[in-house]
């Protein structure tokens, strides 16, 4: 760990108790607001809209569905609209206008629970607006919110067992043609799909259920992929060089002494990332690149990636319950919102990030 006098500090700015389970939290782009969505004790879906104002939190609740909300993304919505896509417990995927609290688009996306979603082509990334969803039915689907059918189904062969898809993300969206999807499953499988060629390009197994997956940036060529898992581990893959036999090089680290529920890169610095734990832990790391990112493998001479190192900058246990949702502000470096199973929302400031 770096010298504590230079380390970023994890400062609790606001703690706000709520009356529902906050399955997801997301900042509303280019605003001082964020949303928290989830499920009430009676099973209703609910979304809370909060505004940061002079050190206080003005929080209003709006119940919008008969069933719980599991995930949310602004990524497929143009910045002038800032509509949010919501994944529901009954498999419904909808687009919601926050100004009117009205659904503008709805499809039956999966047979049951939508575990996860991500968006691209709106606030971030090139190309068409798209939403990717992963369901309990084991299928990953890609949606264009301008039509009511999936533009791509990524599912196992008919004779293969279907595993619960827990996490998905977009990446490689650096022009209007290229785009990839990464998905993680309950059996530890990690898969990367190329949407342009419509094929699976890489798979591995993380040995434990994959709880979170994220490229360090969605709008550049694939660079690093962060994978968080059950049993206290996360893995970081260098996605620039794939060896024909050994695939992508990676590092594995232990964290939180419990499930690592999430891993999120800071938008302003792709080499800084947070992990959130089942023990209520909040860790900040920095990835340090090696002098050379590629070398020739000793056995066959083929190029293989060289990993750098991961440095723990600071860690703090901030809750007695698991932290299950987290988002960095896209507009203010170091500002973050977290939701935990103690039914609370916390706003944190990570200091000194500009100097890292």
Helix/strand layout:
Layout: E1 10-17, E2 21-27, E3 33-39, E4 45-53, E5 56-65, E6 69-73, E7 84-88, E8 92-97, E9 102-108, E10 114-120, E11 130-135, E12 140-143, E13 150-154, E14 165-171, E15 180-185, E16 189-194, E17 199-205, E18 210-215, E19 224-229, E20 233-243, E21 247-254, E22 260-266, E23 269-277, E24 281-288, E25 294-296, E26 303-305, E27 309-317, E28 323-328, E29 335-340, E30 344-350
What sequence of helices (H) and strands (E) makes up the elements? EEEEEEEEEEEEEEEEEEEEEEEEEEEEEE
Arithmetic mean pLDDT: 94
Poorly predicted runs of 5 or more residues:
none
Beta content comes to over 45%
Counting structural domains, the number is 1
User: What name is given to the CATH topology?
Assistant: Methylamine Dehydrogenase, Chain H
> What is the rounded Rg?
19 Å
Percent of residues in helical segments?
under 10%
Sheet with most strands: strand arrangement: 1-30-29-28
Key features of this structure:
356 residues, four-stranded antiparallel sheet, mainly beta, globular, single chain
Description of the molecule:
The protein is mainly β and 356 residues long. The chain has one domain (16-355): Methylamine Dehydrogenase, Chain H (7 Propeller). It is built from no helices and 30 strands. It has strands spanning 10-17, 21-27, 33-39, 45-53, 56-65, 69-73, 84-88, 92-97, 102-108, 114-120, 130-135, 140-143, 150-154, 165-171, 180-185, 189-194, 199-205, 210-215, 224-229, 233-243, 247-254, 260-266, 269-277, 281-288, 294-296, 303-305, 309-317, 323-328, 335-340, 344-350. It has a four-stranded antiparallel β-sheet, with no helix packed on it. It has a four-stranded antiparallel β-sheet with strand order 2-3-4-5, with no helix packed on it. Strands 6-7-8-9 form a four-stranded antiparallel β-sheet, with no helix packed on it. Strand 22 and strand 23 (269-277) form a beta hairpin. The chain is globular, with a radius of gyration of 19 Å. The model has no long low-confidence stretch (mean pLDDT 94).
